[in-house]
Amino acid sequence: MFKVSNPSKPKVYQGVLEELRVYIKDNHLSPGDKLPSERELADKLQAGRSSVREALRALELLGLIETRRGEGTFLRSYQSLQSVELLSSFILLADRTRDELLQVKTMIEKEAVKLACPNMDEVARSKLNASINQTTVLEEKHTIFFTYLLEKANNQLLLKIWMLLEEFSSSIAKAYYDEHFYNQLMELLAKKDYDAIEELYKQQDHQLYD
Amino acid sequence: MFKVSNPSKPKVYQGVLEELRVYIKDNHLSPGDKLPSERELADKLQAGRSSVREALRALELLGLIETRRGEGTFLRSYQSLQSVELLSSFILLADRTRDELLQVKTMIEKEAVKLACPNMDEVARSKLNASINQTTVLEEKHTIFFTYLLEKANNQLLLKIWMLLEEFSSSIAKAYYDEHFYNQLMELLAKKDYDAIEELYKQQDHQLYD
DNA sequence: AGTTGCAGGTGGTCTGACCACTAAAGCGAA
DNA sequence: TTCGCTTTAGTGGTCAGACCACCTGCAACT
């Protein structure tokens, strides 16, 4: 009676996580630094070793720590990319319609062109040109073209998201444009004409081959 | 001698994770269904209960399962993304990462406005207007405004990605615009003036408050 | 029939015990 | 001294067993 549903009593390992966070902060630990041993933590935090291990497992899963048997547990240099991959893989877990996927991917590609503009000097452009002429397969052209541009866009997060979408979409739909499209983009890339890029994509809308 | 460096011997809990995946698949378990008890799993999979628990902790962290003391372990219907909270509490994202995050989020918001345009009739616009006037806190305004638009953009995948970025960014940086900005967007939304939206964002660039 | 109370099952936690592994101290031979 | 080996202490990896708190279902009682 009068049961308060389930306030879910906090678990020990969650408390350990919090205390670890404080510990790392207070001791100014940097990536590569060593954490206290599991036994020492269990003793200090007044928790069983198994609970401490459950907390460490969580951190390991998120790529925040690295454990080396016989040596100890170490703080890992954090790369946002890792967690992005983990989370993205679950976002894509649910069924996504082909249209939604392509829409998002195309949007990213369009914006990437614009972001890359300032970084595309003469050398970069000829390099890109040489790259896409290595193959005659249009799908490959597409991938090569935008992989290069996404790198030049100078946003690791965007690159990562795009690569995941690219990988995922390649398994359900081949998407590429008319060969002329890439040449036009190359020209606009040189002119840095943002509006024209926007316009070009507007025309191209719903004209993806697949 | 002849040590093969250390390919990192796989841990038991990782094997358990894999076997659980197979189990779920083979038995066609759906969200809400019950998993075998920890003791039963340990017995079946020939592993200690603590190892099984470490695997379950991982799944719990990812929001894939839910454990109810006294009842059992159940497949979860939705993901709460608790790992995001945990991650951001541990990491002070580097400035570079923070900037990238905001850049991607802003880009998505901009495109979402355009995608939502066709679906924003008179009724929808007044509804949105009423929503954002419920609060005077600018950060809340921002979230409410774009949550509504992202929904109207009619792309579940884009919505999901945005929510993820929003959740992340809200824990490391408050980002919102001048109040006037939202009013301008509302106007352009009515006019469906895509170029002006693009232009407005171009002006707003690097003017995020935080 | 309605209520109570008990028994069994479940997750949550702790302890102690091994194992495999690593690094550093110790030590003997060159 | 210096080199190379053995020893040893400490670490993570794992397991088994023991409680506890909690939930459910069922049997016994009213």
Question: Could you explain how this protein is built, in words?
Answer:
The structure is a homodimer of 210-residue chains. Helix content of chain A is 62%, strand content 4%. By secondary structure, chain A is mainly α. Chain A folds into 2 domains: 12-75, Winged helix-like DNA-binding domain superfamily/Winged helix DNA-binding domain (Arc Repressor Mutant, subunit A, Orthogonal Bundle), CATH 1.10.10.10; 82-204, Four Helix Bundle (Hemerythrin (Met), subunit A) (Up-down Bundle), CATH 1.20.120. In chain A, a hairpin with a 3-residue loop joins strand 1 and strand 2. In chain A, 27% of the residues are buried. The model of chain A is unreliable at 1-6 (pLDDT under 50). Chains A and B meet through helix 1, helix 3, helix 4, helix 5 and helix 8 of A and helix 3, helix 4, helix 5, helix 8 and helix 10 of B. The structure holds a DNA duplex (30 and 30 nucleotides). Chains A, B: Residues 10-78 form the HTH gntR-type domain. Chains A, B: This is GntR family transcriptional regulator.
What key attributes describe this structure?
2 strands; homodimer; two-stranded antiparallel sheet; 2 domains; Arc Repressor Mutant, subunit A; DNA-binding; disordered N terminus; Four Helix Bundle (Hemerythrin (Met), subunit A); about 210 residues; mainly alpha
List the helices and strands and how they pair.
2 copies of one chain form a homodimer.
Chain A: H1 12-26, H2 38-44, H3 49-61, E1 65-68, E2 72-75, H4 80-91, H5 98-116, H6 122-132, H7 138-152, H8 156-170, H9 179-191, H10 194-204
Antiparallel strand pairs in A: 1-2
Chain B binds a DNA duplex (30 and 30 nucleotides) through residues 6, 9, 11-13, 37-39, 42, 47-51, 53, 56, 67-73.
